[in-house]
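Troubleshooting log. The previous run stalled partway through. Resubmitting the same three chains, unchanged.
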Amino acid sequence: MQITAAQLAEMINARIEGDPDVIITAPAKIEEAGPGTITFLANLSYEHFLYSTQASVVLVSQEFKPRTKVQPTLLRVDDVYGTVGQLLAIYQKNEADQTRRAVSSYAVVEPTARLGNNVRIGKFAVVEDGASVGDNTVILDQVYIGPNARVGANCTIYPGVRILRDCVVGNHCILHPNVVIGGDGFGFAPDAETGVYQKVPQVGNVILKDHVEVGSCTTIDRATLGSTIIQAGVKLDNLIQIAHNVEIGENTVIAALTGVAGSAKIGANCRIGGQVGIAGHCTIAEGTQVQAQSGVIASVKGPDAKLGGSPHMHYPDYLRSYAVFKRLPGLLEDIRKRLKALEG
Amino acid sequence: MQITAAQLAEMINARIEGDPDVIITAPAKIEEAGPGTITFLANLSYEHFLYSTQASVVLVSQEFKPRTKVQPTLLRVDDVYGTVGQLLAIYQKNEADQTRRAVSSYAVVEPTARLGNNVRIGKFAVVEDGASVGDNTVILDQVYIGPNARVGANCTIYPGVRILRDCVVGNHCILHPNVVIGGDGFGFAPDAETGVYQKVPQVGNVILKDHVEVGSCTTIDRATLGSTIIQAGVKLDNLIQIAHNVEIGENTVIAALTGVAGSAKIGANCRIGGQVGIAGHCTIAEGTQVQAQSGVIASVKGPDAKLGGSPHMHYPDYLRSYAVFKRLPGLLEDIRKRLKALEG
Amino acid sequence: MQITAAQLAEMINARIEGDPDVIITAPAKIEEAGPGTITFLANLSYEHFLYSTQASVVLVSQEFKPRTKVQPTLLRVDDVYGTVGQLLAIYQKNEADQTRRAVSSYAVVEPTARLGNNVRIGKFAVVEDGASVGDNTVILDQVYIGPNARVGANCTIYPGVRILRDCVVGNHCILHPNVVIGGDGFGFAPDAETGVYQKVPQVGNVILKDHVEVGSCTTIDRATLGSTIIQAGVKLDNLIQIAHNVEIGENTVIAALTGVAGSAKIGANCRIGGQVGIAGHCTIAEGTQVQAQSGVIASVKGPDAKLGGSPHMHYPDYLRSYAVFKRLPGLLEDIRKRLKALEG
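Second attempt completed without errors. Output:
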């Protein structure tokens, strides 16, 4: 992105103070900004950086009064944070538009695969027989779209993602690098006599609805039969394990390194911390919040429960019990002394 | 798979009630089954679905008596669950047979690599110098088989798996997408004066014996010297970390997000839950069960111990202690009141 | 590597006893060593293996006196362990030198990418527009180096690594298979009315300084704005999550499956165990040690604190409290009995 301060001011409806012709190429933080960057000052505890920054342009509020002369061009706006969001979105869209919309000559798209309009398929990517990719979707390099898998419109699928046979990704989804959709569920039946495990065939699939985002190296297993379902608007962080036949409700967010065991059903609008474990076949009510590192071992009726501990309990109660736990040796010692004194 | 009810009935030795010529293309759950699918009714709490299902064929027991007329063709068998397993295995085998047995023209197999009979090598897969792949093994797209690595017969290696230099995979193994076999062990020696870490060379390998299955994004590090060994029949879930020089005994199963630190030795037939940590150099006896999220910090003599907590303890004892922990603030309050009353 | 005992003796300044012409091809552990291997005897509790080993050559100390005649050629050195390290480094260097220094004809290096001298780019690897790779760096097969990403000199980047747009890797770094550098940070703003999450654009990058090593499937997210920074000499194990805008100080080591949340700052020379969680925006002082499976939920002033538990506390105190926890049911029972007796 190359744009002058004056051009940008017009786009974001800002008032210019300083050189209108200075060129901006990228956004930056005020404490790190170099020449050619645009930054912002909203929180006044960062004001001192304004007087030394190398940035070419700084967004400030209409009311802000610098204590001394400043080097960069100032762009005054009504809502600094709001404008930053707008600016970053413009910047990111601009970057994305630079990516070529085309099928790389190094990609393999099998004859029976169907591609929508304005699709990009990256180098060494594979779209297998019977698979489909919707309009405006970007499939980056080295991605695998398996037989009969379907990816919707307006998605971004980053390098190294694997979407296996028969799985379905909705519209406006983002899958970060090395995500795996549709590995086999972990299902084995032990032979009663020998203890040797026989594989239970996993013939279901995974369905991601619209506006789902999945973090790097997260794995979502296919259902044994039927579908593992991630509802619209769900956001999954990196390195999460979602087992076979799980269902996750709309707009639920889950932080990194959490594991959800087979057939668990998580309601809508839940907030689940990092490194949480959720046992198989649990049903978690809408709006449940689970503290990082907790272990949910049974269904939660909720709604809007706050859980902590392993096994889980009401989180404020966990903190109260833990506060006592921290002082246990001293508390016990005191009780014993007093008992001894009483016992004479 | 396209088959008529009559053809299937002959294969699974079923008795037909209804249209024998209806065509089946896929299995499904009774509550979700659409036209062209086959489903089953074993648990009678699902019976009401039978009267509304769109499925073309339903497996039922010999004894089952519908309360009213049913639309789908019924196939009566002696053991419904057993037949479902048989059916899914037929379906999955059939799907696998459709995959072309050949070396893709987009794969690179180096001149000194050796391929068995009936091997498939997928697009953008690499088999490096000195590597070998056994009979009937399917190497899917974008897999990496490093120099001198060996993969046995009848394996399935999914897209994005990396099997590094000198590592060995047995027969009948399944490696799910993005698994890493043979990354360097995490070994560093700090310089006593500067605190800077020097890498300890990792020149061993990883050996997977027969019938091992490894879940998506699981990582198994090579030994510093010698081998990290996964014995026959071991089943590892997704996102598991197995460190250098670990040994895991036959038919042990480990759930997702568990970490096993360097040189730990886990016995046969253990059952280890998700998010468990096992400390380095521990020896865990045969048949040990470890509850999810526990931390095993020392050797376990067992056999057949049940562990929970972090650091680990006898699991039933952990639950008893935890039950008291949950009530600690109230219990302490009560004791204090009674002590005060006694002290006058 | 093929070398005779005599040639090796000269390289490591050893004294030969036995056949000087025996050929060595690989190192091995004494209890597993086969013909053609070299092994060592330093810890005398392994001495009995010396009399049965199939190894061709064994390193021993100058002083060591075998109890009986031995089959392998002995190489006597002053410092057995030191020589083993030297030997493994020679062996590994030798293996690495065999890898061809060249750009594979199956790789794609875009026209505006810049490659240093003596660079290797593996098969199906991609180096995108504006990216650069420093001298002597080895990029293995199926790696992705995104637009404008920079990789320094003398690095090894293993198969399946993804280094996304604008990210920077220093010199002498090692990235193990399927590592992801620069996936988007996990940033979403909920719509106050609908609960639907809007993506916060993530336009920063990731910077790895020199001598950083990153384990298989570890993920490091790009900063929202600015950089996620991994300082020189940091060693990260497998399956670690480093969130957006985190900074990790020099020579800090982190074990597998640990998660560091957004904007946390970890000091230099910390030692962080496996499966640890560190909350967002915490500052952890230099030299802090964190026990495996702990949860650090607030800043740690330190230096050199030792932490355990979740939420974290002083680790020795955690162990003392936990020792009481293990005995809680019995302790409570005893207190109650004594109270009852006193209350008459």
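Takeaways: Residues 80-98 of chain B form the longest helix (19 residues). The two ends of chain B are 84 Å apart (CA to CA).
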